[in-house]
Amino acid sequence: MSLATRMPTSTRGRWITLSVAAAAWAGAYWVNEHLWDVVFYDLLGMAPTDRLTQSLHFFFYDTVKIALLLSGIIFVITILRSYMSIERTRALLGGRREGVGNVMAAGLGVVTPFCSCSAVPAFIGFVAAGVPLGVTMSFLIASPLVNEIAIGLLLTLFGWQVTLLYVAAGLSIAVVGGWVIGRLHLERWVEGFVFETRLGGQVVDSTTGLTFNQRVQIGAEEVVTILRKIWPYLLVGIGVGAVIHGWAPEDLFTEYAGPGNAFGVLVAVLVGIPLYSNAAGILPLVEALYDKGLPIGTLLAFMMAVVALSLPEMILLRRVLKPQLLAVFIAVVGTSIVAVGYLFNVLLS
Prior knowledge:
Number of strands: 0
Helix content: over 70%
Order of helices and strands: HHHHHHHHHHHHHHHHH
Structural class: mainly alpha
Strand content: under 5%
Number of helices: 17
Distance between the termini: 52 Å
Largest sheet: none
Radius of gyration: 22 Å
């Protein structure tokens, strides 16, 4: 039985139920902060300074913490996002001029449901609705790069300053990158069938007419769906982070991507591009590397490369983009990410 099925029909009853659920979530989050100290230090008698203890403590604590954060963030954002659909986004962006359209597309990309698996249908739908190529590209860059999960986890793990920098950089990359691609007039490098696709009839908004209980049910189902999809990558990311946290020597990362290496940001981006992960899976690794002293600009560039230029998404986009345009897309976004990484390292050094 879903959460929405158990929800009372009265307004007061609904808010009481949601308040109890929120209190239970907060209690679990608070308990997790102390639980693993008791388990490893008191019950098992393991030394806090031991490397194995540090790795195990990091793995179990971060697994529960990030699972709780993801559940809460996905649930709340999905309910809010249920008021904004892909159809409505197409309607808002259709016919917009470049410049204003790029800014609007980047902003809408943050709040509209989108992931690498929907890259192809989203691209086709936008172009078929008359959205300019550059504006569409701004949306495609911003949506995976500055998504609600990344924002929520960054805010919790690193604070509002780092989160604000990440959001500002991500939106800037989306706006500038899309505008540059639009100015190059590369429509000839879009696969021909995309322009032959036509949207029949009026744009239908699939989110209208939903009751609040239905939106709650959508939120609960989205939590389960996303966690089922990402849990292997989440555990791998946390596991790698745990190894780095407890065992990997700091000098190894300092040598190749630390402040002493002029090519550190470039190395981080090149390493990040072939990785297949998302914000939830990569943030534990970013957190562990941050604890090892890597510059925040290098880490943000690494994270951006992973979530915005992942190999699977590039393979999917190849269905609608000819190799020349795909190469331009990677070059523009990758260059922007490297520039942002170096800029942040200079500003925050």
